[in-house]
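re: ur msg from earlier - yeah i can do the NAP complex, just paste it... oh wait u already did. ok heres what im feeding in:
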Amino acid sequence: MRDNKIYIAGHLGMVGAETLQLFQSKGYSNIVTKPSDELDLRNQKAVTEFMDREQPEVVVLAAARVGGILANDQNPYQFLYDNLTIQSNVINAAHENEVEHLVFLGSSCIYPKHAPQPIKEEYLLTGSLEPTNQWYAIAKIAGIKLCEALNRQYGRNYVSLMPTNLYGPGDNFDLKTSHVVPAMIRKFHEAAENGQLPVALWGTGQPKREFLHVRDLAKAILFTVENRLKGDIYNVGTGKDISIKELANLIQKITGHHGEITWNTSKPDGTPRKLLDVSKLHSHGWRHNIELQDGLTKTYQWYLQNIKELKEVKL
Ligand SMILES: NC(=O)c1ccc[n+]([C@@H]2O[C@H](COP(=O)([O-])OP(=O)(O)OC[C@H]3O[C@@H](n4cnc5c(N)ncnc54)[C@H](OP(=O)(O)O)[C@@H]3O)[C@@H](O)[C@H]2O)c1
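and the outut:
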């Protein structure tokens, strides 16, 4: 199995880089990658030619247009179009080249805004989506359905993993496009450095969210590949959530900020609670290892070590 040819799409992103590193550390030596400036996955012809030439046995699709609430809300077309084309091109080229196993990454935001908690896989398409990220969510749902249709019609083994909110090394700390954890780390760090200035955060702080360290997701991808896990969708998370206010207090402590925190309640809160039911993946034997406080502390250390080379995300 370790000499299986594996294509990791999006290997320079947070998930792709961690996955590549994990697979390499486990002795996988036949891994194919291509940066986006050499292979734009929105280009169907280029993707088809690449897949025809490389003939991987397994594909991990970790390339996508990804961002926080603000980026989603301001760039609906890119979030819908880029994700639809990237995933359609890669999934179809994999199918046409008889790739036996593919892991597609969805997201917990595909579930209905008011889904019962914790969210089970079967709640997909049982209610309306959170409007701010509907563009991204609809593209991801289409990706899940493409895999499901191939499994049903052609007997493929294309599995969609639905990770909860991720954080960790390699994250995007650009405040215009980042998710909540890297945004808070940067805000608290900079406020502490500049004389303990107040930190202004969006919303009421009341919504509850679940966070998974990206290393744990990489392990779930490895687990899926090594066990050739069957089935259409698996949630991936810790099964535990905390309020945004509690998260802010934790990050404030870790970064050594002692100033005031203000909450801008005119900004949207998003979905009130989002906790995944991870019992399906647990029943196969996968569990997360990294607890939030430890993961956040390590992520802050990574941020400090890489502060000069942080990526800028342009849309
Ligand atoms: N981050 C989270 O909290 C989270 C949560 C749940 C699910 N996920 C899912 O996990 C997957 C990976 O997310 P991530 O956080 O690792 O995102 P990321 O850090 O933004 O990485 C995305 C990768 O996709 C590549 N990419 C984007 N557009 C491309 C294109 N047109 N052609 C080729 N490559 C392209 C990027 O390459 P360039 O940098 O060169 O553009 C980058 O390497 C996504 O499917 C996402 O939906 C993420």
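cool cool. The chain has one domain: 6-309. ping me if u need the other ligands too
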